[in-house]
Amino acid sequence: MFGGRRKSQEDGAGGKGKEEPLTLTVDEALERVELGRGQYFGMTVNLLLSVSDGMQLMAMFYLPMALKHDWGTAPDTVAWLDAGLILGTAIGVVAGGIAADTYGRKPAILVGAFLSLAAGVCCAWAGNFTELLTMRTLVGIALGFNEPACMTITLETCPPKYRGKASIAVQGVGGAAGKIFVAVMADALYDPAYNPDFVRFGWRTFLFMCAVPALPALILGLYVTSESARWLVVNGRAEEGSQLLRRVALRNGTAHKFPEGTRIKEVEKEESTQDMTALERMGKEPLFTASVLTTGATVFTSFVYFGLLYALPVYIEGYGKKHGWDREQKNLALLIVALSEAPAIMVAYATIDWVHVGRRMTVIFALAGTSISCFVFNFQLLAQIFHSSHAVIVTNFFARGFAAGGVFGLRLYVAEIFPTHTRGAAIAVTHACGRVGAAVSPVVVAFLLVDWVQGDYGMWTKFQPMRAFLLFAIFAAVGAYMIWELGLETEGQALPDTSKDSVNRVLAGSEFGGRLKRFLSNDPEQDPLLGSPVARDSPRADSLRRPDPGQGLRREGGLLKKRGSHQKAEPGQLNSLCSWLLP
User: Which end of the chain is more exposed for a tag (fewer CB within 10 A), N or C?
Assistant: First the structure.
């Protein structure tokens, strides 16, 4: 039963019962506090910021014609506005991640919301293309600044059993809703009956509306967003964390399960990395391997996702003209494909907590589905089978949906892998690199889809519209392979607070980092057990149990021995060693 305090018997006869306060871990405390009003208001703030993020990211994809109408801007020049925003997010996410780990999650959210609102509103008053490019870059910095804090505080304030679904609901549903809203606004913007020659509203009003969700997020955040109790505990402020959880319990109606005075167990500090910054910890094993693989997968996934966002509007113009589509048909096709993110998020929402799927396989399946869909589109297989030009919408619908599921699933997966004191920085590094890939993607896609000099390159010209999607298929497959090699599963696990916790969740039959880990180590004499932990219930763990990474120990029989203490190995041990060295 849930009791507020534990009774202990004093020494000596006739001693009276004495109540001692409970001592709980953060996850145990969150399970008692449960999910309720104490977290819902804070999650609403994050949801509004995610809606604004989705609207801002998609805004410029729909404005080339409007900007050409007002300023005569060429469509290919508008791609620099997308690149500026995405590069801005790469800068902002690094600053936001470091700020979230150093100063707390709440201050980072408030600063990011203010910057997003101010820069977004200023976009509507840009006087020329250079000013608009500058403002869009500042918007990107603001959006990136928000991202690590919003993700981490959602994970750290929810009970373990709701953590994955809450993250997908806030980040995924909010982002998808923002993209759908902006697609609907774009349909009204170019509706000749409702808005002929942009008489009702133009691109300035369009950009102003994209900034509006940040205003209620900022106002609500000042009053209802609480700091992360886990961040307080990890930073030596366990008493403050306990008081914060007590207030949340009062709002949730679970104060009887978390009485006043309940203690939160402090996190054991890692002596070897205690004086390091978060970025320095990420450069040290075992986090280095996880950083490289998750960052690589994020870069490839972001390149594919944002490439699909940019490629379809460009491709639809030429494809629709060739097959006699009017403007309404083109806009309808873009809207249908934008709607694909909603069911994709619903599928990811369900599968991340399935025992035999989890976070890792959700990401792998999503990226594999993206690769297959892009490959099918590359050869126009459905269009040939159904003899319909509209069949391209189907393949793009699935490609976009799978890519969106991969993006949001990967965000959750990365955030749950890294320990609390580096979680913000890890999100910052992976997402910043991903944004660089996303920024490069529109430029690469524009080169592959648009014949800049209208020249004839023979067969290469004929395959020109297709080679971008073939590149997407390859990159998505590479991203899936990196996550497969990582071998970690976070479903049903407590959030890690130390580096040891992070790698203590390798799946049975998997090896942490796999062949890529051995390649990155580049040390043929490295003990195969070091930095390559295996699952405790895997076949290899029956005879070999994993030592702590980086301790310079090796396993012989049932004893841990220092490296360099040579003894004759038994045949069984040699076989076990060979099974590690050989793929």
Answer: N
**215 CB-contact burial (10 Å; exposed 0-12 / middle 13-18 / buried 19+):** middle
**Rounded to an integer, what distance in angstroms lies between the CA atom of residue 472 and that of residue 211?**
31
- pLDDT average, residue stretch 508-512: 57
Residue with tokens 């994050």: 46
CA distance 363 to 347: 11
- Reference 405, options 330, 483, 347; nearest CA is 347
Q: Report the alpha-carbon distance of residue 107 to residue 222 in Å, rounded.
A: 9
296 vs 302: CA distance, rounded Å: 10
Residue 174: phi and psi, rounded to 5, are -60, -45
175 vs 331 pLDDT, higher one: 175
Q: Please give the full DSSP string across 115-161, using - where no structure is assigned.
A: HHHHHHHHHTT--SHHHHHHHHHHHHHHHHHHHHHHHHHHHHHS-GG
Find, among 289, 352, 282, the residue nearest to 487 by Cα.
Answer: 289
CB 277 within 8 A of CB 463: no
pLDDT, tens only, 86-143: 888 888 988 998 888 889 999 999 999 999 999 999 998 988 888 999 999 999 999 9
Residue carrying structure tokens 């040290």: 284
- pTM (two decimals): 0.71
Give the Cα separation of 471 and 480 in Å (integer).
Answer: 14
First to last CA, the chain: 50
The residues facing 207 across adjacent strands are none
pLDDT higher than threshold 80 for residue 427: yes
Distance CA 185, CA 209 (A): 9
- Residue 572 predicted with pLDDT over 70: no
Cis peptide leading into residue 159 (ω within 30°): no
